[in-house]
TrEMBL record:
SUPFAM superfamilies: Multidrug resistance efflux transporter EmrE (SSF103481). Coiled coil: none annotated. Keywords: Membrane, Transmembrane, Transmembrane helix. The chain crosses the membrane at residues 12-31, 43-65, 77-97, 103-124. This is EamA domain-containing protein.
Length: 138
């Protein structure tokens, strides 16, 4: 089995791929939901889109799990995947559905990602020394 380093960048590329597949799955789900089901051919198209949505989400989950396995912590992987998904969803919505995003949306997205980064940035020495202290007292 291949050894993975616990560095900050470990698995980040896999998390980005997972975020892209999550965006693709969402796009296919929205297209399937908007598809007309009045004829047999349109019902078939809706079914195909739903199947591709499930496939994209399954592949995205697989990449996410691989990213988690390659990383020492789940938090950086979650940030990378969420950031990719948010940004790609905004661009896909703009390109495919002619949706617009407001400054409020971008601020909200930035705050969510900032919160995830703050959660992720726990000083390692402090938590390691706290664990050592607890072990000494036992």
């Amino acid at each position: 089995m291949e050894e993975h380093g616990g560095g900050a960048g470990s698995g980040a590329h896999l998390a980005v791929i997972a975020g892209i597949f999550a965006t693709s799955g969402s796009l296919l789900g929205k297209l399937a939901g908007g598809a007309d089901a009045s004829s047999l051919s349109s019902l078939f198209l809706k079914g195909v889109l739903l199947i591709f949505m499930i496939v994209c989400n399954t592949i995205g989950c697989t990449f996410f799990v691989k990213a988690l396995h390659a990383s020492g912590s789940s938090l950086p992987i979650t940030i990378a995947s969420a950031a990719t998904n948010y940004i790609c969803s905004a661009f896909v919505g703009y390109i495919v559905f002619d949706e617009s995003t407001s400054l409020t949306w971008w601020c909200g997205t930035s705050l969510v990602l900032l919160g995830l980064m703050l959660i992720c940035n726990v000083p390692a020495e402090k938590s390691a020394s706290a664990i050592e202290e607890k072990l000494k007292h036992q």
